[in-house]
Each structure stands twice: as C-alpha cells, then as structure tokens.
Structures
1.
Amino acid sequence: MYQQIGAPKSNMKKFVLMASACLNVVLVIALCMTAFSGNNLSSPAVSRRAAVTGVTGGILAATRMARAVDPTNIFETNCGACHQGGGNNIITGHTLSKTAMEQYLDGGWNKEAIEYQIRNGKGPMPAWEGVLSEEEIKAMTDWVYEQSTTAFKDIN
Ligand code: HEC
C-alpha cells in the first residue's frame, strides 16, 4: 500500500530525466542541422559549442529538477487521493484548513503537530516516515501549514 503510493513519485523523477534526455537529443539534432546547413551565418564550430553548452545545461537542469523537493507534486502524488484540494475524502471535516486542524489535529494547529501526523499517520491515514525522505517530510509540513491559511483556508 505504502509502496504503491510511493511509486509514482520515483516514476515522476525518471520521467523528468527521460523527458529531458529526449529534449537534449532533439536539441543536438537541431543544432547539428543548423551547423551543417550552408545557409547559416554562424560557423560550425560556434554551433557545435552551442550544442555542447545546450546539452550540458539541459542535463544540469534535469538533475536539479529531479532532485528539487516540490511539495505540490509530493502532495498530489501521495496525499491527493484522500486530501484532494485540501479536503478529506475519508473522514468528513478533517480537512487541511487551519480551522479543521485546530479542532481535529492532535496537538492543535502548529508545525510540530502537522509533522507528527505526517510521520506517524492517524487512523486510516498512513505514516509517511520512511516513505518520504526527511527533506520531503519537512517540506510537506511547511507547505501544509502554509496552505492551511491560504488555498485550503475555507475547505471544510
Ligand atoms: C489513505 C488516506 C490518506 C492519505 C493518503 C493521507 N491522509 Fe492525511 N488524513 C487522512 C485521514 C483519514 C485524516 C483524519 C485523521 C483523524 O483525524 O482521525 C487525515 C488527516 C491529516 C491531517 C490533519 C487534518 C486535520 O484536520 O486533523 C494532516 C495535516 C494530513 N492528514 C496530512 C497528510 C499529508 C501531508 C499526506 C501526504 C503525505 C496525507 N495526509 C496523506 C487520510 C489520509
């Protein structure tokens, strides 16, 4: 169950890397075509350098994207099934709004309590410790806390 929920996340990283790799191939082909077509002002050497720069940049960007913790993405992948739009499909009312958390979250509405529940779960909610990385748990805590007074403020 936990594995199933966790799986799409790593697939996503692979997808980003794959997509970037494909883009790089397209870029190289495009730049090579430019380099070897006669009616072009820039010399092939310049274009080749541009191709190399483009590829290196693309790989670096892809690595950064795959590594960066994206809370919105983590939320949609792992939490969205039960907390779609910040709500709660399993237990009505136990949403991610500040007012709901003040009422239902053990320890009240604060980051420690949010982090505790993400790590340990509660009732039907699974524990995410060991499923999400430490960095991801921290990022989710901050993000949920933030959303609870903004996007999820009026979800009930
Ligand atoms: C399988 C369904 C399920 C998934 C997946 C899930 N939750 Fe929950 N979550 C619940 C349920 C049910 C509750 C209410 C528990 C209770 O109060 O008894 C809850 C409550 C919460 C609360 C407290 C809300 C309140 O009003 O008390 C937070 C914060 C929370 N979840 C965050 C998350 C985060 C972040 C994720 C993803 C990493 C996540 N949940 C994934 C089912 C889920």
2.
Amino acid sequence: MGSGIAQVAATAGCEVLVFDTNQKALDRSREQLEKILSRLIEKEKIDQEKKQSIQNNIQYINELSGLKSSDLIIEAIIEDAAIKKTVFEGIEEYVSKDCIIASNTSSLSITSLAASLKYPERFIGIHFFNPAPLMKLVEVIPAIQTEAALTVKVKEIITSWEKDVVIAKDTPGFIVNKVARSFYGEAIRMYEEGLADQATIDWAMKELGGFKMGPFELMDFIGNDVNYTVTETVYKAFFYDPRFRPSFTQKRLAEAGYLGRKSGRGHYDYSEGAEMPEPNTDSVEGQKLLDRVLVMLINEAADTLHYHIATRDDIDTAMTKGVNYPKGLLKWADQIGIQTCVERMDALYFEYHEERYRCSPLLRKMAREQLKFYAE
Ligand SMILES: NC(=O)c1ccc[n+]([C@@H]2O[C@H](COP(=O)([O-])OP(=O)(O)OC[C@H]3O[C@@H](n4cnc5c(N)ncnc54)[C@H](O)[C@@H]3O)[C@@H](O)[C@H]2O)c1
C-alpha cells in the first residue's frame, strides 16, 4: 500500500520519501514502480519524461530521521496498533509541530492511534483502497482529537492528487468496509440456508443487479482469509452487533486453506480443467436473491447516514468509487421506494426475529413522512 500511495503523491508532483525498516521491501518498491511506470508508457498513459519525474520525486530511506522536514506523513506499515504507536513516537521526535501525521489503517481506531501522539490534533486517518493508483476513493477520518481545520486541509491535498475524498466518522470499517459487509454476509447466509448455490447468487447479483462481480467471486478474489478477518474485526469492534456476524462457511474455507484464487480453490475450484458450476438463471428466483442482499446494503447505508457517520453524497460516492457498485445505495433506495425497502426489512425480521434484520429507524421515518434521500 505504501508504494502505491507514494506513486500517487509523486505523480501529483509531491516530493516523497518512502520509509521502511526492511531494505528488501524498499528495493521491491523501487523495482515495482519501474515496472508499473514502464507499463504505463507502453499503454501511452504517460511519457518517458513523466516517468522520470515521478521516479525523481521519490527517495527511499531506512532511517526515521530522514523524515524530519516532511509536511505530511502517511503511515502504511503492518496492521498492528502497538508497532504503529511506537513508530509515531519516533516520528514525533524528528518532525516539526506542523507536520501532519496520518494512518492508512483499515481497521484500527484513528482516535486510539491519535492518543499515542504528543500532539494528537495533527493526526488523521487517510484510507486508500488497493491498488492506490487505480482506486479513486480515499476515506478521510478525523480522530476526535483532530483539529477541525485539518480535515479540510487534508481533503484539499488528497483531492489535488486526483482522488475522490469522502469524510467518515471514526467508526469500525469507516464507510466502505462497514456498508459492504452485507454484500458478503447476506449472500453467504442465503447459501447456508440452501436458498441457492454460489453460482446462482453471483449470477443474480451481476445479471439482475449490475454488480461487476458476484459476492462469492469477489470473496475468492479478495481471499477468504482476508475477507473473513475484516468481517470478524468489524463485528468485534461493533460490540458484536449481529448485523456483522461472520459465517462458519467462510471461517472453514479460510481454515482449510481454500483462500480463493490465490490458493487455487475457494468458493469455486480454479484448478486447471475444473468446470465452473452453472447458475440457475430463473429470473424470478434470482430477483428475490438480489432484493434481499440489496435491501440489507441499503439498510446499512441508511443507518450510516442515520448515525451521521458520513453524508448522503459521501456514502453513495464511497460505494460507487470504492467498491464499484453500479449505483449509490441511497439513490437505489429512492428508485426501489423507501416504503418497499421498509417492507422488505420487516418481512425478513418477521421471518427470523433476529436483530440482524431490524430496519433502520431512518428508513422507517422517511417512509412515514414519504421522503426520499434525493429530491426529485
Ligand atoms: N492491503 C490492502 O488492501 C490495504 C488497503 C487499505 C489499507 N491498508 C492498510 O495499509 C497498511 C499496510 O498494509 P499492507 O497490505 O500494505 O501491508 P504489508 O504487510 O504489505 O506492508 C507493510 C510494510 O510495513 C513495513 N514495516 C513493518 N514494520 C515497520 C516499521 N516498524 N517501520 C517501518 N516499516 C515497517 C514492512 O516491512 C512492509 O514493507 C495497514 O495498516 C493496512 O490496514 C491495506
């Protein structure tokens, strides 16, 4: 992630220092950048001069003291709070009081990281998506200690790096990794209940819903180990809210080493000669599968707005730019009809009597008052 972020900043004209304690990681970063930029020349996306200027903008260092004149530091080291905190302490010994310090963490509390700093008001979350040069979205997450003006300033900087910036409250999973949980979780739940197989659910989400990848394909692409860990982390961080409960199906796949594409087997078999299962393409049944996952996604998006974790526009931008959903979920809710969304959630709740299926109070209120997320 660090290499990708460095490429983004250097492409935008910033002078970048890449710091890593591991010399091999630094060498790899330099070699990969050379390959990536050469490929961009082949594709005629950049010319030789631009490649040279990007490379000239980056220096690789392995001493923290080398960072002393930095204006902005984005930490993207191993996902371990204690190690990150030690590094922040080290950084603060060298940099000026005005230097902005940020973390690219996906799962740790920005507020708890900020608390380890001498000057926590200069600390903020800047969460890129992988691969950083290709993914347009960046979530900016102020800690409760962050100085208010810093959020505006960081948004300006990252926007000037040609990214779409959304602001999220410091909540587990921020926007994307919180709202997207149902895409996987509800799909697995339907599969576990025997409502359909993976190929059929993937087919329905893609063909009828317009999603680029089905949930099972996507889990296999991300890796069932990685995807399971994100779900478990969000679930625990939300004080075991059943809406985010992980599944045994995915846990067992991860335990078996059926990680997905990277191990040759996951929900699907990717070994040579293996045939992909055929979906049942009954569109009436398929629509029911799509409707159930979609309403769970919409419900989560509505709750994210209800609790002021992000604005309406930022929630829709996050899901279209961060995970390429075909439409913003709140816009989609308007099209389906808020009343219909409420009825679908209530039908699930009536069926299961699980809190997982409780309807967002915001949707219920909007249905009562006949409101839409977007004015006509
Ligand atoms: N991989 C993703 O898809 C992704 C997406 C968004 C955010 N993130 C976040 O970015 C961060 C990095 O993730 P990654 O997948 O690139 O990890 P990674 O393990 O690939 O890279 C981490 C790097 O940190 C270096 N490192 C470890 N300890 C260090 C120290 N004390 N000082 C300096 N460098 C040190 C390692 O040598 C390694 O090169 C994590 O916080 C993760 O949550 C990852």
3.
Amino acid sequence: MRDAGGQPEPLLAGRDLVKIFRGRPSKRYSLFRTKIRAVNDVTISIDAGKTVGIAGESGCGKTTLARLMVGALPPDDGQIYFRGRDVAKLRGEERKTYRAAVQAVFQDPRSAINPRLSVAASIAEPLVRQKDQTKADLGAAVDELLTAVGLEEGVRDNFPHQLSGGMLQRVAIAQALASDPKIIVLDEPVSALDVSIRAQIMNLLQDLRRDYGVSFFMISHDLATLRYLSDEVGVMYLGKLVEFGPAELVFDQPQHPYTAALLSAAPEIRRDSAAKGSQRIVLPGDMPSPEEPTQGGSFHSRCPLWQKLGRPSVCTDEDPALHSTGGRHRVACHFWDATPTTLLPTTTPSSDGHDVTEAAGPRLDPATGQDHAREDNWADGPW
Ligand SMILES: Nc1ncnc2c1ncn2[C@@H]1O[C@H](COP(=O)(O)OP(=O)(O)OP(=O)(O)O)[C@@H](O)[C@H]1O
Ligand code: SF4
Ligand SMILES: [Mg+2]
C-alpha cells in the first residue's frame, strides 16, 4: 500500500498519540485525580523489515508507547495505522490479521507465558488459533520454531518453572513468531537477563530479522542494545519524542541536548571520532513528574544549551515541535543546529583509550556480552 505521495506506507505507525492515566487524588479536591500524560502527542512509524528503537530514562513513557503500538492499550487521542489502515476501524478478518501481524515480547517472560502449559503447548497455541492442523503438522511447526530460537527439542515437554530466564525469553519469542508476525514490539527484552544471555538473545533477534524479514519496535533503556539492533532511534522525554532519526545520526551526531547528555554517559557506543574523550554532560535535577505538566517548554530547567544561550524566553514559552533537520532526522529544539558543537566538547582524553571509530563489531560475544571492539559495552545511561 502507498500513501498519497506514492511512498510505501509504513508497516506500523502512530500519529499524534496521547495516553493519559489517572494519577493520585488531587490535593485540593479529593474526588478528583491528577492526570498523568504518559504519552504526549507522539508520531512515529516503522517501515517493513526495519528495527526502530526507543530510548529514554525511567518513566518517560516508553512502555506506554509500546503498549499503544501493539494495541494493548487504546490511545486517548491519535491513531495507530497498520499498513496505512486505521486499526480502530478494522473489523472481522482484517482485525484478526492485524492482531496476528503485530506481536509483543516483554521484559519478564514469566509473566507472559502460561505456567500451566508445556513449552510445546505454549508455542502451539497461536498455531492452533490460526488454522486446523494435524497433530503431526503442529508438532513439526513447533519443532521448527524451537530450532529457529535456538532451543533443543528436549525442552518441548518442559514447563516454564523448569527453564532459565534466557530460555523462557526464547520461548516467548517463538510464541510471537508462531503467529507469523510482520512486526514484534519488544519492551526491554534483554534487560532482565544475565549479560552473556543478553548477547545471545540480541544475536538471535538479528538472525530472526534476517531470516523472517520481521520488523522490530524495541524499547530499551540500554543505549548499547539500541545501537546494536536499531536502524532508526527515537529518544523520549516526559512523554514526548525529542529526537528521531537514522541510528547513526542520532548516536553520532545528536542534535537535541537531552540526547547529547544521554550519549555523553556512554561515549564508547559512539562510532565517530569526535566521541573520543568527550566529556560527560550532567543534567541538573530529575525529569519532572508527568503529573505536573509545565507551561511551555518542558526541558528548559535542565537544558545546558538553554543556559549557554542566555536563557532565551522562546524555550520557556513554547514546547518545540519536531523539526526536520534533513531526511528523516527530526529534533524538538528551537536551537537544534547549535547542539552538537556547543554541547559535545572533546577536551578530556577517554580514560580507557579505546579507538571508538573501530568500535562496531557485527556480533556480540556471547561469552562476555560485549561488542568485540570494546571492553565496557554495557555502561548504563545516566538514569
Ligand atoms: N497503568 C498506569 N496507571 C497510572 N500511571 C501509569 C500507568 N502506567 C504507567 N503510568 C505512568 O506513566 C508514566 C510513563 O510510564 P511508562 O511505564 O510508560 O515509562 P517507561 O519509560 O516505560 O519507564 P521504565 O523505563 O521505568 O520502564 C510514568 O509516570 C508511570 O508512572
Ligand atoms: S528548545 Fe531550548 S530548552 Fe528545549 S532543548 Fe532546545 S535549547 Fe533546550
Ligand atoms: Mg517501561
């Protein structure tokens, strides 16, 4: 399907998405509750065969956005489109097709897998729902999926409590694949796993993308995970996308001060030579509560660029819209063109002396969970 401009429609897209939760009872009127704007006017799209990653500190709305995109939560405003069709308007067979095509894998596989079903029965469930199959066909399909996710046939009769976290995450991925999905929404799929298992699962995801052509929409607070798997990356702050674009541009030439600050805590994942020896940008304070929305811009109180520019009033008066800097790279900053040079000083040599321009190994080492070219691949962000 193509859009009005003749471009192929994205596989999955969210337009102007808003999700508001009820918060605590209001201080003034106990019958009322505060409103939490968990996702605030987000527009995003994932093309067929691509991986889009979302970064941001805890509470910025990543999981809520993932749940909206997979249809697990209805938006309070905005629409979700699957291949150009508004999913709220899909009925009957079309809705069934969309449901099968968009699958989810979450951080804790134990909560997603029925503890009373064996591995084989869990994986077979979506297959049975799709069409009548003979027992032999079903068994063969389950074995094929077990192989695809790197599990031995010996585990088919095991129950979830008999499996490790890494094996269970593989079962959850096999279960998602059983629906023959076009896209899998992954919310922190490796963050609950040991470092060495993380690398195996990330390599598995790379392989599945290649072998099945499946797209991923991936949430992670870990920038190294996103760098490894994503074609495009979005950065969220307080329910909004503040930067979105091709991964190499967002990671190596961040245009938003918040992205620059996140990346300054993990210079080793950057592949451009300017990252060598770059200084850490420490933002003052914490992300404000989404229960207490500020008037105008939401980031200025923590923004180092705002300070450097002499506190321009436009930042306090107007929340900047996402602005295209060329191609698909978009940034929500009134002064986006000032960010990279102003905020990424390169005065202090890197303490570990890595040559980050060579830091992009194509596979992670399962024994260590590290990108081959560097030693400390799992540095946490500043959150
Ligand atoms: N069901 C809910 N009811 C009320 N508030 C919610 C609910 N789910 C999320 N929130 C709030 O919405 C905001 C965004 O939460 P969300 O879980 O989407 O963030 P996140 O970026 O995934 O955080 P984390 O990195 O900690 O997983 C938070 O303030 C959270 O407390
Ligand atoms: S718009 Fe102003 S406050 Fe917001 S990121 Fe840009 S410089 Fe900082
Ligand atoms: Mg979350």
